[in-house]
TrEMBL record:
Entry keywords, A to Z: Membrane, Plasmid, Transmembrane, Transmembrane helix
Keyword set includes Transmembrane helix: yes
Keyword Transmembrane helix: yes
Region (Disordered): 1-36
Species this chain originates from: Paracoccus denitrificans (strain Pd 1222)
UniProt protein name: Major facilitator superfamily MFS_1
Major facilitator superfamily (MFS) profile domain span: 72-452
InterPro entries named in the record: MFS (IPR011701), MFS_dom (IPR020846), MFS_trans_sf (IPR036259)
One MF annotation (Gene Ontology) recorded for this entry: transmembrane transporter activity
Transmembrane segments: 97-120, 140-159, 205-224, 230-251, 272-289, 309-328, 340-365, 371-390, 402-422, 428-446
Amino acid sequence: MSGKKTFARVAISPRPCTPPTPAGRGTGPSSAPRDFADIAPWPRTMHQFARTSQRNAMPKSLQNPAPPIPPTVWMLGIVSLLMDVSSEMINTLLPLWLAGGLGASALAIGFIEGLSVAIATATRFLSGVFADWSRRAKPLAVLGYGLGALSRLIFPLAISIDQIVLAKALDRVGKGIRSTPRDAIIAAVAPPQIRGASFGLRKSLDTVGGFLGPLVAVGAMILLAGDIAAVFWIAAIPAALAMLVLVLAVHEPEPSRVAKRSGFRLADAFRLNRAVWAVIGLAAIIMLARFSEAFVLLKALEAGFAPTWVPLAMVVMHAAYGLTAWPVGRLSDRIGTAGLLSWSLVFLTIAHLTLAFAGTVWAYILGTVFWGLHMGFSQGLLGAMIAAATPDAIRGSAFGTFNLVAGVVMLVGNTAAGWFWHSAGSQAPFLIGAGLSGIAMLWIALRQRRFHL
């Protein structure tokens, strides 16, 4: 009985122990009880094990979350939004004004659109090389957006095709100057793991402007009884606001982030690797297949749209574009671009075939939806692929070369589309575009490994 009581008393009595002393400071084995030293680390070790297990169980996207998109990218997106509101208010009505008010043929409209792109590409190319040499992109962007805003004052005053060409040329020069430095700024401030999302965001905000611009144009046409010139005057307001945001809110990274250059060398634009040229070749085929949206707008009249409501076609197109550009950009950062680009060409093929045979308003709207899906799946990805394949020091030149080649091809494509429309009917350019889209898909299939950048 006494033995049991003694055992119980020992079992429930707290065992005296002293905290272990730091290594090298103890007075002997008794200073840190052996059983305490063995037991004390266990709770801490088990806690660490539990935390490690939880972390390993998390998806990798939660373990290493992507950094936020830089404010500069957001501001550039807002600038693009405002400028695109202005541009689309003009562009959605300009083909109608050329064909109806000034008597231009489809061939003339195609040539004007192609010439405008050709003028823009020359300035894009040179502005990219100059941006690399000067290591300053924002001044060029300000100049480009400023010229675009200035052109808004010419459109409402134009009374002939020549004056429209002058206004378009000034607008395209501005677009050519600003596009390359704008893309170079985004590539410089966006971390590599979110670069596709950053380009996609800028494109999405640009497309929101493309969505709002035609809506404003329709409302203005209704309120102003179809006075297109008055609508052109209103289009100057968002262009002026875009300039304010660009000057006050867009901050370019310091030149030190870009490698120093020894001087201006035009040859730098051609020191591009094979991966860049593969992307440029693919873009050339896509741009040849996807001619100007001016022909899509002219097709709206054949499908049964009244002139006042034609801009709504662009609302549908840009809605589909804007809803896909940013998500597709983020998806490309994870799974690559070749498959997504293939899907974009599938959508373009469907759009061409639908628009070629569209005899009703609803069939036409379906075609514009697929056209917008193609734009959302393709444009942001091409910019991200160029950025990923090019060294920092000549990235502006790479974007300039990319835009140059695409623009020259669009000059040929738009002029050819106008000629086919004029000589063989409105179905011809869309059917040819569908065939070229198939060639682009074959290009991707044959060079699949080169597009996994």
